[in-house]
Records
---
Amino acid sequence: MTDFLKPYSDGVYEGRMRGKFQLYTKNAAPGSIVYGEKIMTDDDGTEYRSWDPKRSKLGALYQKKIRVPLTSGSRVLYLGAANGTTVSHVSDILAESSGVVYAVEFSERPMRDLVMLAEKRNNIIPIFSDATRPELYFPMVEPVDVIFQDVAQANQAAIACKNAAYFLKEGGHLILSIKARSVDVAKNPKKVFAEEIKTLEKNADASFKILKTIDLAPFHVDHMGVIAVKNSKE
Ligand SMILES: C[S@@+](CC[C@H](N)C(=O)[O-])C[C@H]1O[C@@H](n2cnc3c(N)ncnc32)[C@H](O)[C@@H]1O
């Protein structure tokens, strides 16, 4: 590893750029970049890709020094993959061990980019489907350790609970980004967040114990990050 970079969290590295804390992941597809990110190359040729917290809710959590329950051996269900900006960093993290990410997206255009990304990386399973209907991709996804969700839809917490009922192992973690304006443009974001949290805590499909809530500003304004653990059925 370069003198510039040091391990920060499993599969994530930190460096200082002009005194500023900057995140990196080890490039699992050397020679290619995904969204114009910078590359640092080690003496032995290992590439590290910079991770922009303004382009990624998950990146913002790491940047805010939150302990993120994601390890390189995790099985991950990623809802709202878009064209794979953040999925690519998750793929880098998982490539350090034997992890896999199932990446769900329902819009055609970003899906094309996601499929091209998955062709270069063997730990991404792209799924063209609707996250509100987990029964459709149930046959393609194994039980997972982590659900990461960034879908910007009205009923974000309910979508997470529905997917957790199908796929999340008991004691598995949910990492959720809630965009207040997608739930209700007119309502005070604080009210929206409180209601979404209530849904996570008490839901007929699956319920969660909330471990942490994080304001994602200044990287993502009016967005809240939630880290939660799935309650057992008893
Ligand atoms: C904010 S973007 C995600 C950005 C991405 N997580 C990243 O960091 O690179 C939200 C994405 O969720 C997708 N989406 C919204 N509702 C969805 C649904 N019900 N099922 C699948 N994808 C959905 C949208 O098409 C969009 O690409």
---
Amino acid sequence: MQPSPTHRASFSIGSEAAARRVVDVLTEVFFEGDAAVAAFERPDGQWDVTLHFADAPDQAWLRELVVNSAGNEIADTLAFDTVEAKDWVKASLEDLVPVPAGRFVVHGSHDRDRVAPNKLKIEIEAALAFGTGHHGTTRGCLLLLDHVLKSSRPSNVLDLGTGTGVLAIAAAKALHRAVLASDIDPPSVRVAAENGRLNEVGHHVRVIRATGFAAPDFARAGPFDLVLANILANPLRHLASPMARHLAPGARVILSGLLTHQAPAVIAAYRARGLVPLRHLRIEGWSSLLLRKVG
Ligand SMILES: C[S@@+](CC[C@H](N)C(=O)[O-])C[C@H]1O[C@@H](n2cnc3c(N)ncnc32)[C@H](O)[C@@H]1O
């Protein structure tokens, strides 16, 4: 899930239990954000796991790590290559069709005139950041945001881990209110700000660079009554405490980026900080959660 991958390692796994084990190990090892881990279940029940690295990984070390956590079965399928990040993202965006999600539709510039007029359009320009709407986690967040907006108008919104800015732009377009967006990754900060302007909500979406809640802007802008955070399970668990401190009573939180088997641990971490789960969407092996702060 890193925005500017150039080196790739991929392998397949036959059992869900082994896939769970190896994804847990890899997301733990790469918590610092120097690699992005993605896992997809194929229709035949096999799992494809892909890692993207900004710097070339030590192949022998990585092979040992995945074989130790997933077993010898993956050894023959493990392959390393490099991808031209910009061309790869551009090419994949050009192939993509608009993605409807509730009242929203996410599309590229080539589809500007072809999307349904009754939807809130979010145009995402080809860029080195995550979040075109096609991934199950982004779609899950948009669907839960749509659900929240049916019964309330949050007044203070945070999109933590904004990537292309897709969720912040969706919230700003629907609410016509200021949204704070943050990302650990400088290119994503630039891309999200550009996409905010492209979608004519640049005056509402303020994008900052921050790791988790480590910036004074959060205390100044908070407490938030809606937080969207589509990052991995491990960072989400670590962020439970600081997030709870930045929430208004009754605030809603939308979490995504976790594989479905990781949801119970994430729910437990947030429940311990006074957040109760309201909804659980499962899309393509990924979970998106809606929680509410009690009191
Ligand atoms: C899966 S992408 C989500 C992008 C977009 N919000 C979406 O829903 O499609 C996760 C984003 O979170 C950022 N990120 C990861 N860990 C973070 C952290 N601890 N603090 C802030 N941003 C983080 C990554 O750089 C990446 O842009």
